[in-house]
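Proteins fold reproducibly. Next comes an illustrative record:
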Amino acid sequence: MGKLYTALEEWIREEVLVKGTLSGKKTSSELVKVVVKPVKIKAGIRFQLEYHEKDKVRHKNLDQAEALEEIAGLMAEKFKQLDLKTTKADVKIFANSSEDCRVVVKSLKAQVEERVVDLSHNRQKHYILEDGVPVDYLVQLGVQTEAGKVVKSRYDKFRQINRFLEYVEDVVKVLPKKDRPLRIVDFGCGKAYLTFAMYDFFTRKLGMEVSIIGLDLKADVVKFCNETAVALGYEGLRFEVGDIRNHEEGGEVDLVVTLHACDTATDEAIVKSIGWKVAALLSVPCCQHELHDRLENDTLEPVLKYGILRERMTGIVTDAYRALVMEAFGYEVQVLEFIDMTHTPKNLLLRATRRRAEVPGEAPQVEMSKWQAVDAFEKTFGLGETYLRRRCESV
């Protein structure tokens, strides 16, 4: 019996294991990760293995001996490590073969509430990132302690990152599968919490190769982010000083992200996305000033005459207008809640995914029936010639 099997036998028991995740692909197989957890079925306690492939998830329910053999084989051939949450400790097992492994055990502190094994199929949803499970960039950026505990003052940021990753996970299915790294541009990345989160999600969670660039106007922020990326060994991530309008990318771009890009900076990101024919755009708009003084509608005058209501209406009209424009250029757009209003008033996210193929080398095509809807919307609210419309004419 090898050292790896012995280590697995100690921690993968029904009264001990809460959840385990196999990650760090050794091969280029379709299998991205495997999750293991104990479940109670009619036949008794079994260990359920979830095999996550790029386009599907399949399950097996195995008894302990079968599960140990299966996991040992997966670690010997396909995955580098197994992260375990147990009732006694957080455990990491690193294996090169069935005979060679390294085990790192972090015991739960006495003041931490004892973990309980949940054997039901319908468990409460887990975050993509979990409190108590350390992630290197979260530790580096001060969101987690080295033990993986979320710093109390950074819990809102932790929650925001999780929410954002849920939206990223939702667009994975529309991203292209090509023989090249996935290309992502993050406009106005700031301190880049979400940029680092995307890199970790695609590489560690999904086993994909990526090339991500974060763009920001502040040189000191860009310097910090580049130094952090180097410290973490994130080779496919870089940051540059620059603005959205003047930035150009050689080659295809698959996903564009903007978080709180102020005023027309969001419009610039939309224009770039349309011009690049990206598969998806995730944008949290901010500070919609351009249309504030233009809004004009006799029916809505009882609303527009009050400053605070005009401001809120401006945000709604601006984002609805942006959604209409992207729909005219062949995107399916959803307006979603990003995080609760109690955390920030800027809580809407525009998620746009391309719904039709474009001919390579040709300019993006506009659907005239949908562009007529844009015209009608502009007239309804007295918008005149908007910045977004002018920029779209140059795409």
The two ends are 64 Å apart (CA to CA). The chain has two domains: 3-126, 160-392.
